[in-house]
Write a structure and sequence with these properties.
The chain has 9 helices and no strands. By secondary structure, the protein is an all-alpha fold. It starts with a helix and ends in a 7-residue tail after the last helix.
Length: 203
């Protein structure tokens, strides 16, 4: 058991230091050797934990998205909240997680640019996580419509609007390097109140 804990601890340390390399060098210029050097270990030792730099990168995304999805599931199960409150809370949780992971967002954007230059298109794992999040948002809007909380909105358009605002948060945090996304949170709240026909209520 102690060996497994130590192994997991070392993996987390590698991920943290690898992120520094990805941020400093960009995805394309990052190598396993540079990551090993930053970690103070040999490449052979690094290969015990990860097969290649792409696996390290994907594991970082998986870790972040796992935390986000855990938060979302807690909100979705909260029986005391109506759909309006659940959607607002989910969106704010996502924004807060993004804000706390600015460095990883920078690397993700760099990676997507790298893929676009190589004509590879979005990586399947990134796309899968994106579709999963969009599905969660759409299902919550559908729930709000069925419960009579929201107007009979076009679900696809509503999902595009909410997801577009989340993409805007990523752009502001990773590209524009804004200190805060409070205005964006207000925009999200405005969109959800619009669905609920409660533009007169700022809460």
């Amino acid at each position: 058991m102690a060996v497994a804990v130590e192994h997991d601890k070392r993996r987390c340390e590698i991920l943290e230091k690898a992120l520094d390399v990805f941020v400093g060098e960009g995805f394309e210029n990052t190598t396993i050797q540079k990551i090993a050097d930053r970690c103070g270990i040999t490449r052979t030792t690094l290969y015990i934990y990860f097969k290649n730099k792409k696996e390290i990168f994907n594991f970082s995304i998986k870790q972040l998205m796992g935390e986000v999805e855990g938060d979302i599931q807690e909100v979705r199960k909260a029986a005391a909240l109506n759909f309006t409150e659940k959607i607002l809370r989910v969106l704010n949780v996502i924004i807060d997680r993004l804000e706390g992971n600015r460095r990883l967002l920078t690397v993700i954007l760099d990676y997507l640019l790298y893929l676009s230059k190589s004509d590879s298109g979005p990586d399947q794992r990134v796309r899968k996580r994106t579709l999963r999040l969009r599905h969660i948002l759409a299902s919550m809007v559908i729930g709000g419509v069925k419960a009579g909380e929201f107007a009979a909105v076009n679900i696809r358009a509503a999902d595009d609007l909410l997801y577009g605002l989340l993409e805007s948060a990523i752009f502001r945090l990773a590209v524009l390097r804004r200190e805060t996304v409070s205005e964006l949170k207000e925009s999200l709240a405005l969109a959800v109140r619009l669905f609920a026909g409660r533009l007169d209520n700022p809460s």
